[in-house]
Amino acid sequence: MKKRILYLLLALVLVLSLSVPALAAETFYPVSVDEYTAGELDEPRINKVYRLSLSDDPSGIPTDDFVRDGRHYYLLDLIRKDEVGVDTQPCTRTVTLPSTTNSMESVLQSLEAEMEVETDEGYTGTLKLDHTSVHVTVDGYKSSTKNHSATRTFPNLSEADLSLLPKTVTEGGRTLSLATVQWSSSYDDDGEGGAAIRYSATASYTGSSTTRYATGYTITADYTGEVAKTGCEIVTYTAIFGSRAVPEESAEDSGVETVPAAKPEPAANSPASAPVTAAGLLTALGCMAAVAVPVAAVIWIACKIMERRGKK
Questions:
Q1: Count of domains in the chain?
Q2: Is residue 256, in this structure, part of any structural domain at all?
Q3: Are strands 257-258 and 66-68 parallel, antiparallel or unpaired?
């Protein structure tokens, strides 16, 4: 029974140790790759150049063997060179401006084509206006009311009767309503030697219109580009790979990574998952030891407890 428990605990240690992932170091991609021949036999070689900052871990530079175009490439040398260079990085700045119009033509004319910037980290550069990012938004709306009036004269009326006058008139495309009337009268010959009274009306028509208008506009636009900082301490590593010809069937069974010749190189110094290196293996072994030691201590204590119970 004791042996069975001991075997189970040992199996637990093994499972926990294998479950600890090997911590791969951060890897980098080369800024340039040069293929050339060297030596008396014109041996094909590849130089991969990496640019790292002083804080970067060079163990992330891939140095494993690989196969390309039927040749087995292996690391010959890794050269380090400290230098002072120019570091660049993308930059975007958003500007916000007030405007009295939402006409895109007028808005674009009010924006500068370029912008000089300096970041808090000391990077400087010239950014250009991204025309596709320009937007105009309304700050708010208000309403205004305007009064309108018109006067009409209606002469030679037989009576001073409002029913003889139109109740509304149209002025400037707006409909106005009858407001006030002033009457006047005069005598005229009725055609039979008598006198007839004729009336004239001066009518006032009024109305109002309400207009909704924007109180103002806000322009937002992005300026994009690259900013640079000189005097940055960088380290240039050059990985030199030699090669030897290998049969195709040997390359397939060798377990060495096969790299297509036409495969494009990714962006420089972009971190990605890396194959396990010697530094990564040492880190992984340290992690497994960190797990195995406490578990082994638990097993030892458990065994001691079982021994004491057996003696009782």
A1: 3
A2: no
A3: parallel
The answer to whether residue 122 is domain-embedded is: yes
Reported as a single tens digit per residue, the pLDDT across 75-110 is 999 999 988 777 788 999 999 999 999 999 999 999
**pTM exceeds 0.85:** no
> Does 183 fall in a domain?
yes
Q: How far apart are CA 15 and CA 288, in angstroms?
A: 10
25 contact partners, CB below 8 Å, separation of at least 6: 57, 59, 60, 274, 277, 279, 280, 283
Domain ranges, residue 177: 149-212
Contact 137, 122 (CB under 8 A): no
* Residues 122 and 222 both lie in one domain: yes
- CA 32 from chain centre, in angstroms, equals 27
Residues 6+ apart with CB under 8 A from 275: 24, 62, 64, 257
91 neighbors 194 (Cβ within 8 angstroms):
no
